[in-house]
Amino acid sequence: MSDRPAGPRCAALVGPYLSGKTTLLEALLFASGTINRHGNQKDGNTVGDSTPEARGRSMSTEINVARASYLDDPWTFLDCPGSVELAWEAQNAMLASDVAVVVCEPEIERALTLAPLFKFLDDHQIPHMVFINKMDTASARVSEVLAALQGVSQRPLVLRQVPMESGDHPSGYVDLVSERAYKYKPGAASDLIKLPDAMADEEKTGRAGLVEKLADFDDKLLEQLLEDVQPSKEDIYRHLTQNLRRDLIVPVFMGAAAHDAGVRRLLKALRHETPDVATTAVRLKLDPQASDTIANVIKTYHPPNAGKLSLVRVWSGQVAEGMSLNGVRVAGVLRLLGAQSTKASAAGPGEVVALARLEGIATGTVLSSGAAPPAFPALPLPKPVYGLAIAAQNRNDDVKLSG
């Protein structure tokens, strides 16, 4: 299998409204040990959706940022709003991420809502995985859901797991690469169990389908299959990793984030298969070896009593407090975990941080310590569908409103 990339990486959690992205973020943070309890949106105690507007609407209204570490690997997760009105915000996050995790429900009729999302990922060649969430409420077979999703994806979907059920609910899964069975264990890693005899045929069929899809991109692997030679699991993992990083395939995982089911398996796949920041910089036609500091603004926040914050991803060099980017002084560097922030002296390539009081710098701006910032893929603003006039309740807030 390919060596795991070093350095901070970034994953965007995207998907339709109500697919469970913020719940998945909470589960990822809990599984990684970043938080010691699993909050939920009903109780209003999640890391994401901490603003009054988000909690009042019971939905994400802006990007939730969470810095985490899993098995000593640094990560930033960007939980993106799923409402169509906020699609541009999610697109900015996806473009700056190393990988996107498309979160969806196991409902055939909702597959069409993913079409614009898949198109954006495919058009911009952003590596992405699918996490079929809420498997505990599934009313359709996985094969039917997969077929519906394939209908809106240009890239082939590669099923990585087969669910095991106890009664009407999933109790675990069979990994199609390792050919091992795991039983879910709430709040902890799944238990390795003996592969049930009743699952043997389904596992063999699923694994054969996985290998056949990989063979479409490798002549040597195709020759092995024609000669009835089965590749080793190490070879399969290597092909999966290479093909994801080249955005040739879309691996599909499943679980139930609200019950911590399947979350650690997703984390392991992200850890081993997600490309590094240098690879992503090349995809964006940036030079990861540039001597100048280069970063781009993903999102602009105006939190109460904190001034303006510009969420940026660093591509080369270091962003430090007091330095000048695009002629504007950086007043502070902050690492974010939801509404919490920690001051940092500097941030290096791959990191996602908030920069304080970059006046006159808008979302989408490329920042540079050099004479001129490099070009960056521009995302056109979506066309408005209605007009609305707003005014500040307090006239003293007029300055904040214009900002």
How does this model look, in words?
The chain starts with 8 loop residues before the first strand and ends with a helix. By secondary structure, the chain is an alpha+beta fold. It has 11 helices and 21 strands. A hairpin with a 2-residue loop joins strand 17 and strand 18. The mean pLDDT is 93. Helix 6 (200-215) crosses helix 7. The longest helix is centred in the middle third of the chain and has 16 residues, at 200-215. It has a 7-stranded mixed sheet, sandwiched between helices. 43% of the residues are buried.
For the structure shown, list the relevant keywords:
six-stranded antiparallel sheet, globular, seven-stranded mixed sheet, alpha+beta, 403 residues, 26% helix
Secondary structure: elements and pairs:
Blueprint: E1 9-14, H1 21-31, H2 52-57, E2 64-70, E3 73-79, H3 87-95, E4 99-104, H4 115-123, E5 128-132, H5 142-150, E6 157-159, E7 161-166, E8 169-175, E9 180-185, E10 188-193, H6 200-215, H7 219-226, H8 233-245, E11 250-254, H9 263-273, H10 277-283, E12 294-301, E13 309-316, E14 319-320, E15 324-325, E16 328-329, E17 333-337, E18 340-344, E19 346-347, E20 352-356, E21 366-368, H11 398-402
Parallel strand pairs: 1-3, 1-4, 4-5, 5-11, 6-11
Antiparallel strand pairs: 2-3, 7-8, 8-9, 9-10, 12-13, 12-21, 13-20, 14-19, 15-16, 17-18, 17-20
